[in-house]
Protein backbone atom coordinates (compact mmCIF):
# COMPACT_ATOMS: atom_id res chain seq x y z
CA UNK A 1 0.00 0.00 0.00
CA UNK A 2 1.31 3.46 -0.85
CA UNK A 3 -0.10 6.94 -0.30
CA UNK A 4 -0.04 8.84 -3.60
CA UNK A 5 -1.83 12.02 -2.58
CA UNK A 6 -2.68 13.83 0.64
CA UNK A 7 -5.17 16.63 1.05
CA UNK A 8 -5.58 18.45 4.39
CA UNK A 9 -7.92 21.32 5.27
CA UNK A 10 -7.78 23.12 8.60
CA UNK A 11 -5.75 20.36 10.20
CA UNK A 12 -3.66 21.90 13.03
CA UNK A 13 -1.50 24.67 11.47
CA UNK A 14 -2.14 23.37 7.93
CA UNK A 15 -5.01 25.35 6.41
CA UNK A 16 -4.85 23.89 2.91
CA UNK A 17 -2.45 21.28 1.59
CA UNK A 18 -2.53 19.13 -1.50
CA UNK A 19 0.53 16.97 -2.14
CA UNK A 20 1.34 14.15 -4.54
CA UNK A 21 3.83 11.58 -3.28
CA UNK A 22 6.30 9.23 -4.90
CA UNK A 23 5.91 5.51 -4.02
CA UNK A 24 9.21 5.93 -2.11
CA UNK A 25 7.69 8.57 0.20
CA UNK A 26 8.84 12.02 1.29
CA UNK A 27 11.29 13.76 3.59
CA UNK A 28 9.87 16.82 5.37
CA UNK A 29 12.47 19.27 6.63
CA UNK A 30 11.90 22.57 8.40
CA UNK A 31 12.35 24.44 11.64
CA UNK A 32 10.76 23.51 14.97
CA UNK A 33 7.01 24.14 15.04
CA UNK A 34 6.79 24.27 11.22
CA UNK A 35 4.19 21.49 10.91
CA UNK A 36 6.27 18.42 9.99
CA UNK A 37 4.83 16.15 12.68
CA UNK A 38 1.35 17.45 11.83
CA UNK A 39 1.68 16.04 8.30
CA UNK A 40 2.71 12.63 9.67
CA UNK A 41 -0.20 12.80 12.11
CA UNK A 42 -2.63 13.36 9.22
CA UNK A 43 -1.24 10.25 7.47
CA UNK A 44 -1.50 8.18 10.68
CA UNK A 45 -5.08 9.34 11.19
CA UNK A 46 -6.00 8.27 7.66
CA UNK A 47 -4.65 4.79 8.37
CA UNK A 48 -5.82 4.23 11.94
CA UNK A 49 -8.37 6.88 12.92
CA UNK A 50 -5.99 7.83 15.77
CA UNK A 51 -3.16 10.23 16.44
CA UNK A 52 0.28 8.65 16.83
CA UNK A 53 0.94 11.14 19.64
CA UNK A 54 -2.30 10.29 21.43
CA UNK A 55 -3.87 13.69 20.73
CA UNK A 56 -7.60 14.34 21.05
CA UNK A 57 -9.45 15.21 17.83
CA UNK A 58 -10.49 18.64 19.13
CA UNK A 59 -6.85 19.66 19.48
CA UNK A 60 -6.23 18.73 15.85
CA UNK A 61 -8.84 21.10 14.43
CA UNK A 62 -7.21 24.35 13.30
CA UNK A 63 -7.85 26.92 16.01
CA UNK A 64 -9.48 29.28 13.45
CA UNK A 65 -11.81 26.59 12.08
CA UNK A 66 -14.91 24.66 13.14
CA UNK A 67 -13.81 21.45 11.40
CA UNK A 68 -10.89 19.50 9.94
CA UNK A 69 -10.86 17.42 6.79
CA UNK A 70 -8.19 15.08 5.48
CA UNK A 71 -8.20 12.81 2.48
CA UNK A 72 -5.68 10.35 1.11
CA UNK A 73 -5.50 8.49 -2.16
CA UNK A 74 -3.83 5.15 -1.57
CA UNK A 75 -2.89 2.43 -4.05
CA UNK A 76 -2.97 -1.11 -2.67
CA UNK A 77 -0.29 -3.59 -3.76
CA UNK A 78 -2.91 -5.20 -6.04
CA UNK A 79 -3.23 -1.75 -7.74
CA UNK A 80 -6.70 -1.13 -6.29
CA UNK A 81 -7.19 2.61 -5.65
CA UNK A 82 -8.50 3.53 -2.18
CA UNK A 83 -9.69 7.01 -1.34
CA UNK A 84 -9.96 7.49 2.43
CA UNK A 85 -11.68 10.67 3.66
CA UNK A 86 -11.85 11.68 7.31
CA UNK A 87 -13.65 14.74 8.64
CA UNK A 88 -14.41 15.86 12.19
CA UNK A 89 -15.79 18.96 13.85
CA UNK A 90 -16.01 20.72 17.19
CA UNK A 91 -19.37 19.04 17.93
CA UNK A 92 -17.43 15.73 17.93
CA UNK A 93 -19.11 14.58 14.72
CA UNK A 94 -16.83 12.35 12.66
CA UNK A 95 -17.38 11.32 9.06
CA UNK A 96 -15.37 8.53 7.48
CA UNK A 97 -15.61 7.47 3.86
CA UNK A 98 -13.82 4.90 1.76
CA UNK A 99 -14.18 5.46 -1.97
CA UNK A 100 -17.05 7.88 -1.21
CA UNK A 101 -19.00 5.22 0.74
CA UNK A 102 -19.67 6.15 4.39
CA UNK A 103 -18.00 3.94 6.99
CA UNK A 104 -20.06 3.59 10.14
CA UNK A 105 -17.78 1.50 12.30
CA UNK A 106 -14.18 2.19 13.32
CA UNK A 107 -13.45 -1.52 12.87
CA UNK A 108 -13.88 -1.01 9.11
CA UNK A 109 -11.37 1.84 9.18
CA UNK A 110 -8.67 0.70 11.57
CA UNK A 111 -5.96 -1.67 10.40
CA UNK A 112 -6.86 -1.75 6.71
CA UNK A 113 -3.92 0.44 5.67
CA UNK A 114 -0.80 -0.96 7.37
CA UNK A 115 1.34 1.69 9.03
CA UNK A 116 4.19 1.76 11.56
CA UNK A 117 5.29 4.95 13.28
CA UNK A 118 8.75 5.58 14.78
CA UNK A 119 9.07 8.63 16.99
CA UNK A 120 10.99 9.92 19.99
CA UNK A 121 7.90 9.27 22.12
CA UNK A 122 8.49 5.55 21.50
CA UNK A 123 10.97 5.58 24.38
CA UNK A 124 7.87 5.61 26.57
CA UNK A 125 7.56 1.96 25.59
CA UNK A 126 10.42 1.28 27.98
CA UNK A 127 10.26 4.17 30.46
CA UNK A 128 6.54 4.94 30.44
CA UNK A 129 3.54 3.47 32.23
CA UNK A 130 2.04 0.13 31.09
CA UNK A 131 -0.69 1.88 29.06
CA UNK A 132 1.99 2.91 26.50
CA UNK A 133 2.91 -0.74 26.05
CA UNK A 134 -0.74 -1.80 25.81
CA UNK A 135 -1.35 0.91 23.17
CA UNK A 136 1.56 -0.48 21.15
CA UNK A 137 0.14 -4.00 21.47
CA UNK A 138 -3.32 -2.77 20.46
CA UNK A 139 -2.18 -0.84 17.38
CA UNK A 140 0.09 -3.67 16.24
CA UNK A 141 -2.22 -6.61 16.96
CA UNK A 142 -5.21 -4.80 15.40
CA UNK A 143 -3.26 -4.63 12.15
CA UNK A 144 -2.10 -8.24 12.43
CA UNK A 145 -5.15 -10.21 13.50
CA UNK A 146 -8.59 -9.37 12.04
CA UNK A 147 -10.54 -10.35 15.19
CA UNK A 148 -8.38 -8.36 17.65
CA UNK A 149 -9.78 -4.85 17.29
CA UNK A 150 -13.41 -5.93 17.38
CA UNK A 151 -12.78 -7.97 20.57
CA UNK A 152 -10.93 -5.03 22.13
CA UNK A 153 -13.77 -2.59 21.40
CA UNK A 154 -16.36 -4.98 22.85
CA UNK A 155 -14.20 -5.64 25.92
CA UNK A 156 -13.81 -1.88 26.50
CA UNK A 157 -17.58 -1.41 26.19
CA UNK A 158 -18.40 -4.13 28.76
CA UNK A 159 -15.58 -3.01 31.06
CA UNK A 160 -17.07 0.50 31.19
CA UNK A 161 -20.47 -0.97 32.00
CA UNK A 162 -19.07 -3.25 34.69
CA UNK A 163 -17.17 -0.36 36.28
CA UNK A 164 -20.34 1.74 36.36
CA UNK A 165 -22.21 -1.17 37.93
CA UNK A 166 -19.56 -1.49 40.64
CA UNK A 167 -20.38 2.02 41.84
CA UNK A 168 -24.10 1.20 42.28
CA UNK A 169 -26.25 -1.35 44.10
CA UNK A 170 -26.85 -4.17 41.66
CA UNK A 171 -28.11 -7.70 41.17
CA UNK A 172 -25.20 -10.21 41.11
CA UNK A 173 -26.70 -11.78 37.94
CA UNK A 174 -26.14 -8.52 36.12
CA UNK A 175 -22.44 -8.54 36.96
CA UNK A 176 -22.20 -12.24 35.98
CA UNK A 177 -23.29 -11.29 32.47
CA UNK A 178 -20.61 -8.63 32.18
CA UNK A 179 -18.04 -11.06 33.60
CA UNK A 180 -18.83 -13.61 30.93
CA UNK A 181 -18.56 -11.03 28.11
CA UNK A 182 -15.29 -9.70 29.54
CA UNK A 183 -13.96 -13.26 29.75
CA UNK A 184 -15.07 -14.01 26.18
CA UNK A 185 -13.50 -10.93 24.55
CA UNK A 186 -10.62 -10.61 27.02
CA UNK A 187 -9.52 -14.18 26.20
CA UNK A 188 -9.37 -13.30 22.47
CA UNK A 189 -7.17 -10.25 23.15
CA UNK A 190 -4.98 -12.11 25.64
CA UNK A 191 -4.29 -15.09 23.38
CA UNK A 192 -3.51 -12.83 20.40
CA UNK A 193 -1.15 -10.63 22.45
CA UNK A 194 0.62 -13.81 23.53
CA UNK A 195 0.81 -15.07 19.93
CA UNK A 196 2.27 -11.73 18.76
CA UNK A 197 5.01 -11.77 21.40
CA UNK A 198 5.89 -15.36 20.61
CA UNK A 199 5.91 -14.65 16.86
CA UNK A 200 8.17 -11.61 17.21
CA UNK A 201 10.60 -12.58 20.00
CA UNK A 202 13.16 -14.21 17.71
CA UNK A 203 13.31 -11.16 15.41
CA UNK A 204 13.32 -8.84 18.41
CA UNK A 205 16.52 -10.44 19.65
CA UNK A 206 18.04 -10.55 16.15
CA UNK A 207 17.27 -6.88 15.39
CA UNK A 208 18.56 -5.73 18.75
CA UNK A 209 21.94 -7.33 18.14
CA UNK A 210 22.00 -6.13 14.53
CA UNK A 211 21.34 -2.53 15.59
CA UNK A 212 24.01 -2.37 18.26
CA UNK A 213 26.50 -4.87 16.84
CA UNK A 214 26.12 -6.80 20.07
CA UNK A 215 25.87 -10.31 21.36
CA UNK A 216 23.51 -9.64 24.23
CA UNK A 217 20.37 -11.56 24.98
CA UNK A 218 17.24 -9.48 25.01
CA UNK A 219 13.94 -10.85 26.14
CA UNK A 220 10.43 -9.54 25.88
CA UNK A 221 7.88 -11.01 28.26
CA UNK A 222 4.14 -10.63 28.06
CA UNK A 223 2.76 -10.21 31.58
CA UNK A 224 -1.00 -10.67 31.49
CA UNK A 225 -2.84 -9.44 34.55
CA UNK A 226 -4.75 -12.72 34.64
CA UNK A 227 -2.36 -15.61 34.55
CA UNK A 228 -3.68 -18.38 32.30
CA UNK A 229 -2.44 -20.77 29.64
CA UNK A 230 -2.75 -18.50 26.60
CA UNK A 231 -2.29 -21.37 24.16
CA UNK A 232 -5.94 -22.34 24.69
CA UNK A 233 -8.60 -19.65 24.23
CA UNK A 234 -11.19 -21.78 26.06
CA UNK A 235 -8.93 -22.31 29.08
CA UNK A 236 -8.06 -18.62 29.05
CA UNK A 237 -11.74 -17.66 29.00
CA UNK A 238 -12.55 -19.96 31.95
CA UNK A 239 -9.67 -18.67 34.07
CA UNK A 240 -10.61 -15.08 33.15
CA UNK A 241 -14.21 -15.62 34.25
CA UNK A 242 -13.22 -17.35 37.50
CA UNK A 243 -10.76 -14.55 38.33
CA UNK A 244 -13.40 -11.84 37.79
CA UNK A 245 -15.77 -13.73 40.07
CA UNK A 246 -13.10 -14.17 42.76
CA UNK A 247 -12.05 -10.52 42.54
CA UNK A 248 -15.57 -9.10 42.74
CA UNK A 249 -15.37 -8.22 46.42
CA UNK A 250 -12.06 -6.42 45.87
CA UNK A 251 -13.49 -4.69 42.77
CA UNK A 252 -16.51 -3.50 44.76
CA UNK A 253 -14.19 -1.88 47.30
CA UNK A 254 -12.04 -0.35 44.56
CA UNK A 255 -15.10 0.72 42.45
CA UNK A 256 -13.45 -0.63 39.31
CA UNK A 257 -12.37 -3.89 37.68
CA UNK A 258 -8.92 -4.65 39.05
CA UNK A 259 -7.97 -7.55 36.75
CA UNK A 260 -8.13 -8.02 33.01
CA UNK A 261 -6.41 -7.12 29.76
CA UNK A 262 -6.65 -3.42 30.66
CA UNK A 263 -3.98 -4.13 33.33
CA UNK A 264 -1.60 -6.19 31.15
CA UNK A 265 2.05 -5.27 30.73
CA UNK A 266 5.19 -6.05 28.73
CA UNK A 267 8.63 -6.42 30.30
CA UNK A 268 12.03 -6.14 28.64
CA UNK A 269 15.19 -7.84 29.84
CA UNK A 270 18.80 -7.46 28.74
CA UNK A 271 21.00 -10.37 29.80
CA UNK A 272 18.23 -11.25 32.27
CA UNK A 273 18.28 -7.79 33.92
CA UNK A 274 15.21 -5.52 33.66
CA UNK A 275 15.99 -2.88 31.03
CA UNK A 276 13.97 -0.13 32.67
CA UNK A 277 16.26 -0.17 35.72
CA UNK A 278 19.54 -1.38 34.25
CA UNK A 279 19.61 -0.41 30.56
CA UNK A 280 21.57 2.59 29.25
CA UNK A 281 19.67 5.17 27.19
CA UNK A 282 21.22 3.84 24.00
CA UNK A 283 20.26 0.27 24.91
CA UNK A 284 16.69 1.39 25.65
CA UNK A 285 16.48 3.13 22.27
CA UNK A 286 17.76 0.00 20.56
CA UNK A 287 15.19 -2.12 22.43
CA UNK A 288 12.40 0.14 21.18
CA UNK A 289 13.66 0.08 17.62
CA UNK A 290 14.11 -3.70 17.70
CA UNK A 291 10.56 -4.08 18.98
CA UNK A 292 9.15 -1.85 16.24
CA UNK A 293 11.19 -3.64 13.57
CA UNK A 294 10.11 -7.06 14.79
CA UNK A 295 6.49 -5.88 14.58
CA UNK A 296 7.23 -4.84 10.98
CA UNK A 297 8.48 -8.31 9.98
CA UNK A 298 5.49 -9.84 11.74
CA UNK A 299 3.14 -7.56 9.80
CA UNK A 300 4.92 -8.34 6.57
CA UNK A 301 4.41 -12.05 7.19
CA UNK A 302 0.70 -11.71 7.99
CA UNK A 303 -0.36 -8.94 5.64
CA UNK A 304 1.88 -9.60 2.64
CA UNK A 305 1.41 -5.92 1.82
CA UNK A 306 4.01 -3.13 1.73
CA UNK A 307 3.67 -0.77 4.68
CA UNK A 308 3.78 2.95 5.26
CA UNK A 309 6.48 4.09 7.69
CA UNK A 310 6.48 7.34 9.60
CA UNK A 311 9.84 8.35 11.08
CA UNK A 312 9.48 11.42 13.22
CA UNK A 313 12.65 13.03 14.49
CA UNK A 314 13.84 9.51 15.21
CA UNK A 315 16.94 10.34 13.21
CA UNK A 316 17.98 13.12 15.57
CA UNK A 317 17.62 10.76 18.52
CA UNK A 318 19.80 8.07 17.01
CA UNK A 319 23.51 7.95 16.68
CA UNK A 320 24.86 7.55 13.10
CA UNK A 321 25.63 3.85 13.63
CA UNK A 322 22.06 3.02 14.66
CA UNK A 323 20.45 5.06 11.92
CA UNK A 324 22.70 3.50 9.28
CA UNK A 325 21.37 0.12 10.43
CA UNK A 326 17.70 1.05 10.72
CA UNK A 327 16.95 2.89 7.47
CA UNK A 328 18.10 0.00 5.22
CA UNK A 329 15.97 -2.39 7.26
CA UNK A 330 12.79 -0.47 6.54
CA UNK A 331 13.26 1.36 3.26
CA UNK A 332 12.84 -1.79 1.19
CA UNK A 333 9.70 -2.74 3.07
CA UNK A 334 7.51 0.20 2.11
CA UNK A 335 6.94 3.91 1.68
CA UNK A 336 8.86 6.22 4.05
CA UNK A 337 7.70 9.55 5.42
CA UNK A 338 10.46 11.22 7.41
CA UNK A 339 10.09 14.42 9.45
CA UNK A 340 13.21 16.06 10.82
CA UNK A 341 14.74 19.57 10.89
CA UNK A 342 17.62 18.50 8.63
CA UNK A 343 18.04 15.06 7.11
CA UNK A 344 21.56 13.91 6.40
CA UNK A 345 21.52 10.11 6.66
CA UNK A 346 22.39 7.98 3.64
CA UNK A 347 19.55 6.42 1.66
CA UNK A 348 19.86 3.78 -1.03
CA UNK A 349 17.15 5.47 -3.13
CA UNK A 350 16.48 9.20 -3.49
CA UNK A 351 13.33 10.21 -1.62
CA UNK A 352 11.80 13.57 -2.67
CA UNK A 353 12.46 16.35 -0.15
CA UNK A 354 10.05 19.04 0.97
CA UNK A 355 10.49 22.13 3.11
CA UNK A 356 7.77 22.80 5.68
CA UNK A 357 7.24 26.35 6.94
CA UNK A 358 4.22 27.70 8.85
CA UNK A 359 2.03 24.78 7.77
CA UNK A 360 2.88 25.18 4.06
CA UNK A 361 4.96 22.70 2.11
CA UNK A 362 7.34 23.34 -0.83
CA UNK A 363 9.11 20.68 -2.87
CA UNK A 364 12.88 21.29 -2.91
N1 LIG B 1 -5.11 22.97 16.40
C1 LIG B 1 -4.12 23.72 15.93
N2 LIG B 1 -4.39 24.84 15.19
C2 LIG B 1 -3.41 25.62 14.72
N3 LIG B 1 -2.09 25.38 14.91
C3 LIG B 1 -1.77 24.28 15.63
C4 LIG B 1 -2.76 23.41 16.18
N4 LIG B 1 -2.13 22.43 16.85
C5 LIG B 1 -0.82 22.67 16.74
N5 LIG B 1 -0.59 23.78 16.03
C6 LIG B 1 0.71 24.38 15.66
O1 LIG B 1 1.46 23.42 14.93
C7 LIG B 1 2.83 23.67 15.16
C8 LIG B 1 3.52 22.41 15.58
O2 LIG B 1 3.59 21.59 14.51
P1 LIG B 1 4.48 20.28 14.52
O3 LIG B 1 4.36 19.58 15.81
O4 LIG B 1 4.11 19.54 13.29
O5 LIG B 1 5.93 20.93 14.38
P2 LIG B 1 7.23 20.23 13.85
O6 LIG B 1 7.56 20.84 12.50
O7 LIG B 1 7.13 18.78 13.90
O8 LIG B 1 8.28 20.80 14.90
P3 LIG B 1 9.49 20.03 15.67
O9 LIG B 1 10.66 20.05 14.73
O10 LIG B 1 9.73 20.93 16.84
O11 LIG B 1 9.04 18.68 16.05
C9 LIG B 1 2.96 24.66 16.29
O12 LIG B 1 3.33 25.89 15.73
C10 LIG B 1 1.56 24.70 16.87
O13 LIG B 1 1.27 25.96 17.37
MG1 LIG C 1 7.87 17.34 15.21
Describe it for me?
With 364 residues, this protein is of the alpha/beta class. The protein folds into two domains: 1-114 and 305-364, Rossmann fold; 122-303, Glutathione S-transferase Yfyf (Class Pi), Chain A, domain 2. Helix content is 44%, strand content 24%. It contains twelve helices and 15 strands. The strands form three sheets. The protein has a six-stranded antiparallel sheet with strand order 2-1-4-5-6-7. It is globular, with a radius of gyration of 21 Å. It starts with a strand and ends with a strand. Adenosine-5'-triphosphate is lined by residues 12-13, 30, 32-38, 59-63, 313, 339, 341, 356.
Provide the number of structural domains. 2
Summing up helix and strand content along with how strands pair, one would put the structural category as alpha/beta
Question: Number of DSSP strands?
Answer: 15
The total count of helices amounts to 12
The largest β sheet comes out as:
6 strands, antiparallel
- List segments where confidence is low: pLDDT < 50 over at least 5 consecutive residues: none
Distance between the termini: 25 Å
Radius of gyration: 21 Å
Cofactors, ions, other ligands? adenosine-5'-triphosphate, magnesium ion
Helix content: 40-55%
Series of secondary-structure elements, N-terminal to C-terminal: EEEHHEEEEEHHHHEHHEEHHEHHEEE
Instruction: Assign an overall shape.
Output: globular
In the CATH hierarchy, the third-tier topology of the largest domain is known as Glutathione S-transferase Yfyf (Class Pi), Chain A, domain 2
- In the CATH classification, which architecture of the largest domain applies? Up-down Bundle
CATH domain class of the largest domain? Mainly Alpha
The CATH homologous superfamily of the largest domain is termed RecF/RecN/SMC, N-terminal domain
Main sheet: strand order: 2-1-4-5-6-7
Amino acid sequence: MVLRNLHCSFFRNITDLNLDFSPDGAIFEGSNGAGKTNILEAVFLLCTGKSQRNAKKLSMINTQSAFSFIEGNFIADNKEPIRASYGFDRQKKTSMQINNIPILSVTEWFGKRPIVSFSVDDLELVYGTPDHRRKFLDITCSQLYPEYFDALLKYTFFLKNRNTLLTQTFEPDQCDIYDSYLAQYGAVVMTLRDIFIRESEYDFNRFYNEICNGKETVKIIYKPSIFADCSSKEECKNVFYRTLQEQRKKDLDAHFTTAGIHRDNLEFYLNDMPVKQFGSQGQCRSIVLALKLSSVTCMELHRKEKMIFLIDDAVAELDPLRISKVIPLIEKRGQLFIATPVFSSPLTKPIPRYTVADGSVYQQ
